[in-house]
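User: Here's a structure from my thesis project, written as structure tokens. My advisor, Dr. K., wants to see whether a designed sequence matches the one we expressed. Can you design one independently, without my sequence as a hint?
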């Protein structure tokens, strides 16, 4: 896994250099450097605005204890990753960071990442996860006797490969 990440990072750095040279050949070296600086400043501004909004939504969902806080947490993570990508020099990273920072495209990135993660999960852990259980009756209480623990009987469902479906 670590080797794949290093290879991907190396290929991304190489692609960034190639795109930077191509843009410099197209509009000139000075304008390319100014454009790279401008996208970094834009990244700081967007990170400040969207980061504050994402953190306030996360704080509000934690305060009200409502379900669905995972989306706000995911948004805060995508805003942080997008901000880092925008601040670092490089045009490919700027485009990817912009997709993570803008609210309209952030849901698309979240959905794509969700599909990628689910596709990497073992078959038994992919949604929907099904759990069957049967509750048994609680044992009768005697005077001054502690209540017996609730026992839940069930069976482990196995997939076609013989592994538990969890």
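Assistant: Designed independently from the structure alone:
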């Amino acid at each position: 896994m670590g080797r794949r990440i290093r290879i991907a990072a190396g290929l991304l750095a190489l692609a960034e250099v190639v795109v930077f040279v191509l843009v410099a050949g197209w509009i000139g070296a000075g304008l390319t450097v100014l454009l790279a600086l401008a996208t970094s400043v834009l990244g700081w501004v967007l990170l400040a605005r969207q980061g504050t909004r994402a953190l306030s939504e996360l704080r509000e969902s934690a305060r009200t204890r409502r379900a669905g806080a995972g989306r706000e947490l995911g948004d805060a993570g995508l805003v942080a990753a997008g901000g880092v990508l925008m601040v670092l020099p490089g045009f490919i990273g700027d485009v990817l960071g912009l997709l993570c920072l803008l609210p309209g495209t952030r849901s698309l990135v979240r959905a794509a990442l969700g599909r990628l993660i689910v596709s990497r999960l073992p078959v038994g852990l992919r949604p929907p996860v099904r759990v069957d259980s049967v509750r048994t009756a609680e044992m009768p209480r005697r005077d001054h006797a502690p209540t017996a623990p609730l026992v839940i009987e069930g069976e482990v469902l196995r997939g076609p490969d013989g592994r538990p479906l969890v």
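When you compare it with your expressed construct, this may help: The radius of gyration is 25 Å.
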